[in-house]
């Protein structure tokens, strides 16, 4: 069956124009004036944009003695409700576990997804098996590898492992990713805070000052540069980290920064709330920062030094957060945001004039598609692209509340925020998953998206590295040895 979206204005990362969109077989079949199709979606007064891509989620993630509550079913349903039509989750091998085993585990979880998905592979330990498996997962369409410099004793890797893995990433034409916080320093600070009686959720923020993020970001950038790997820095939360990314980009290094919608719109005062539950629900790493850091992140989005707005959706219930009563280091780290990312960014970004509509599309969708090797299949309104679209009504308003959300947890960190700008329709490969506020998404409709290695950035970087590689100097005469 064909569907036509009529009467709207198409907004892409670089163009804004009036046209209808015809969808056939889950793909965009035509774009132009006066198109017709069997099903008609009225987009009068709306913008037709590529559906959002959230390249940073943790659905049903095993972490800190529990599993994040939103799984691929509730998480992707929440995504569609907010205009996001694809997520990239993280497959996390346990210590000693092979990458292909971990991949199988994630495939077993994702069968219930309502929208399309892919994975990044985490490098949580190092050895010959990991080295070998990295090539095998690239062959299966997983072309990005995440490294945690935080979570000492759990997910953290050391610098020698990081350098080895980044070299492998370079050789495979993949993308390196990093959670940049200095895990050694965080562990020391946490132990001292606890010993001094700082046990509440606010101590989580005290234990992770901006310097631990700035140092680790800079370190990862330098190591990636030496290894010749393009680097994507997840959840950039502060000026120190942003500054390192900005500087690297000015120097021509291939580095991208990803602020989260939480860090852009919520600040550290949340941790000083007298209600323990309120503060603990907002514990995540890195923690929320102050207004100066938020201004830096917003400036980065308009200046182009920061590239993607994500959520790091990793939602734990209040009951799970209470594992950390009396010891903040046991509060499961993570917050939700999948349903709210696009409405919050539109409200606080586009409606305030901090970013343009085209920058909104770039940072919520197109840039992620390009960086992670799936453009223009995803992230585009173009003939032949998947019909992952959102028909965005800039006049539609709501107040965010947990009672009305798709997420399975019992609260929302954006509770009470008024947003203006919401989906009228969200389409996942042509299927109308959200119809004027009504959820029509289908469990199991989502498909795995295999991604391509060796993108243009990899090729350019490899060429440059090859050209500038150390070479022995050819000499005509070599003096006799002195001995
Ligand atoms: N961010 C966070 O606190 N939890 C999810 C895991 C991670 O991305 O570090
Ligand atoms: Zn992280
Ligand atoms: Zn994360």
TrEMBL record:
Belongs to the metallo-dependent hydrolases superfamily. Hydantoinase/dihydropyrimidinase family. Its cofactor is Zn(2+). Catalyzes the hydrolysis of dihydropyrimidines and of the structurally related DL-5-mono-substituted hydantoins, to produce N-carbamoyl-D-amino acids. This is D-hydantoinase/dihydropyrimidinase. The modification N6-carboxylysine is found at residue 146. It catalyses: 5,6-dihydrouracil + H2O = 3-(carbamoylamino)propanoate + H(+). It comes from the Bacteria. Homotetramer. SUPFAM superfamilies: Composite domain of metallo-dependent hydrolases (SSF51338), Metallo-dependent hydrolases (SSF51556). It comes from Pseudorhodobacter turbinis.
